[in-house]
Write the structure tokens for this entry.
Amino acid sequence: MATLKSATLKLWIYDGIIGNYDVNNPNYVISKEKLNSQETILFEIGELVKDYIKVEFDGDYGLANLTAWVSYEVTNTFTDLTQTKQTGVLLGTQGYGYFEDLINPQLIEPLQQSNTCIYWKKGEKVRVPLYAGQSMYDAEWFENGVSVKKTPYGENLTPITADTTLYSADNVSNITADTTHITNVEESSYSVSEYSPVGADKVVITTRDNKQVTVYVTYIEECKNDQFKVTFLNKFGVLQDVWMFGRRKERADVTRESYKVNTIHSSTAKGTFYPTWVDTDKTYNVNTKKSLTLNTGFVCEQYSEVMQQLILSERIWIHEDNKVFPVTAKDSGVEYKTELYEKLINYTISVEYAYSEINLVR
């Protein structure tokens, strides 16, 4: 019986219309020989795909770019020199799993965030990120126990596993990776933003097999501090919002360089002298970066995971003056808190604006 000898993987990663790529110019061509000690050939594609996923967010959730199409072609060569070929299309995101989730975790839960308790600014519509495919049936909002809105969802995505590609003689291809999906719909259909009516305090997400996930909303009307919304790319590869209700502190850190000059003058009229109003220490390359310290206010225990994902995120924005500005997390850790010992849980996070305060864009 012929066994697998080698495999060649071609990857095309692109935006726009599905299948609209140059077949003669793949982003990657990877060839591997099967090791004698192994029965399969493994291709790691997660980091390769991530390099080409262009995340863009300007405050409009509907126009946010979070994904990319991944078309692949696999050619398997066997010991009798016969070949098989397989092609397909995946939807790649910048999601990730934890070590405890084991290999290739599937991030396709209907609720695309880890917390089911939300603290939101009073008077604002609540936004919840959902996976609108496969097992999703509907999302129903309630206010004081009364249904105020129900959104049905169709089955439009079929999940597969992702980060690696596995080949053997008996099982020619079993493609796996962190968060990738076969799809025949628009790229943006992977994740949707479900908005509540103003004042809704609960949303019940129902799957096609009649399982339910309930998210509870607590509205905060803060009188002392201004409230700021932070949006970040979470572990599911979608945009998640967190309101900061506690004290906000700002800081500007200035950097500069300097050099010394000789200011001595010599003339026949005045002799040798130096003007005291001329600086001998010359300053140049002055710039500054602003940073913020934000507090969540009192939240539930589940925000430990939320804050961990926030500081792990490579893309974070803060909403200010009807605009969004990119920031980066300065914290290198988060201490998990519990109601048993801390009683009232508040998280503090430090971020800095991801640009120089003095405009260097020319």
Notes: Residues 209 and 296 are 36 Å apart (CA to CA). The first strand starts at residue 4 and ends at 14.
